[in-house]
Amino acid sequence: MADPAGCCRPCATCLLCLYSCHWITAKKEKRKGLRTTKCDCSWFLFLFLVFLFTLVWLYFTVIILNDFHNFNEFIFKQRKLWLDWSLVLLIATAVLITYSTTLLVLALCLQLCGQPLKLHWLHKTLLIFTALVVAAAFTGLGIKWAEEWGSARISLQATGPFLHIGAVGGMTLLAWPLASFIYRTRSAGLRVSLLLVYCAVMMALYLAPLGITSPCIMEENQLPPKPVLVGHRGAPMLAPENTLMSLQKAVDCDVQVFETDVMVSADGVPFLMHDEELTRTTNVQAVFPERATLNSTAFNWTDLQQLDAGSWFLERRPFPTVQSLSASDRQEVTKQRIPSLQQALEAAKQSNISVMFDLRPENHSDYQSFVNATLEAILQSGIPLQQVFWLPDGFREQVKQQAPGVQQVYGRKRLQNEEETLLHVNLPYQDMTSEEIRQYRRDNVSVNLYVVNKPWLFSVLWCSGVSSVTTNACQVLKEMKGPIWLLPSSTYLMIWIVTDCVSFLAILWAFVLLKYWLFSLSVPPESETDVLLTKINSLMQE
């Protein structure tokens, strides 16, 4: 290995120490074995692939944060342990991506300095461990949370143009160490192979926008109206879910529909509750410890009224927004009780908002009596029936006969040769494409998608033309005056062309400049003795 060219000895020493755990010594013979072998190149390639693998997982981590509250609820049902697992996921992902990025940067700097890429065995072990952890994470995601692949597909509509620019920029920067390696290596086959692969990747990136589609690439005058906000169990980031306080907070967020879940007590009173057990959102373990694991419908209304439905919100902090509550809000939280459906309907009537609910559990043996009790509560509340949206599929025909004014909402797409006219559909946001949303809009079918919490997702659905979205973050989406980004197709075309042209020129400049720089370093300057001998020889000839 030659002495470092264009790289100071302390820098090269530090880089080798961190990457290879080797020190540069003054004597050449002690550095004789430090050469980059084919095995070292293979480990560098593995490092690069692990970096890309981890980078993709980081992207997935950011995307699935929209739905992570569902994961927290799932873990609580299984383990009775509440924790914001998104923090654990983010910290673990940050550690993995930081480690792989640091190693990759060290390797690229060593290559630019002309140093050997001798990866230490400890780094090799940790890289394999990183790859296994990320692979396990992806496998778990595919098995237990497969719908998130749909979330990733939708996210590309929001991030595609920017991922393209970032990928082009990253590969352009890679041209410097690549050119350095190509000029220094003696293997012609390896040089040609690397150049062909690099050129193929760059060509694919330059043409990638041909396959990038986004509903937000449109003229501003074509933007559909802002989707209506539906409060998921009210405003659960600002108040305990499915309480009257949560309903009022949703009203303050300009929510037009209060979405909730209804169960019926043992003595026939419909009340608001999502979980089949009361343990997550009440203090049932303290009040009725021997009955805490029973189904919510096993309690009568008198028992349910003894439960505190608010304090858990302050203790477990299901969302980071809890810590920013005012003192008056905190005091109000501790006063919350489980509301009956009739109380919720009366509050909705007073605030002039609609109510959409599901009746649970649908597999209960007394489900028909649940439907009857719920219809009775609706009719007794005095709320205009057009403000009530009915989600349950069971006994839907009975509901239409007894309360014909109630809006029927279906949890499925239209069928071919559909005899019944569907005016409202309620689906997970992963289940509908932008093209389907536009078609439903043209056919005057109202589409509500759930659960939409992040501005990037709300922006994509807004551009697609969705009618409404169910959200936990009404206070965030309320403030959005438009999608995060909106680009006319002509502007995006110009950005695409400029990005590709600048990248091509930068890559060309990198290869030309490095060739000139390395050539200048390889030509040794004439020594003073050589100059003196040349002058003496000239004088003797004269």
TrEMBL record:
Recorded GO MF terms: glycerophosphodiester phosphodiesterase activity
GO cellular component: plasma membrane
PROSITE patterns reported for this sequence: GP_PDE
Transmembrane residue ranges: 41-65, 85-113, 125-143, 163-183, 195-212, 493-514
One Pfam family recorded for the sequence: GDPD
Keywords in alphabetical order: Glycoprotein, Hydrolase, Membrane, Transmembrane, Transmembrane helix
Residues in coiled coil: none
Membrane topology: Multi-pass membrane protein
GP-PDE domain residues: 227-481
A GO BP annotation: lipid metabolic process
Keyword ATP-binding applies: no
Localization annotation: Membrane
Main location class: membrane
UniProt similarity note: Belongs to the glycerophosphoryl diester phosphodiesterase family.
Cross-referenced PANTHER family: GLYCEROPHOSPHOINOSITOL INOSITOLPHOSPHODIESTERASE GDPD2, GLYCEROPHOSPHORYL DIESTER PHOSPHODIESTERASE
Protein name, entry field: GDPD2 inositolphosphodiesterase
Lineage: Eukaryota, Metazoa, Chordata, Craniata, Vertebrata
Gene field: Gdpd2
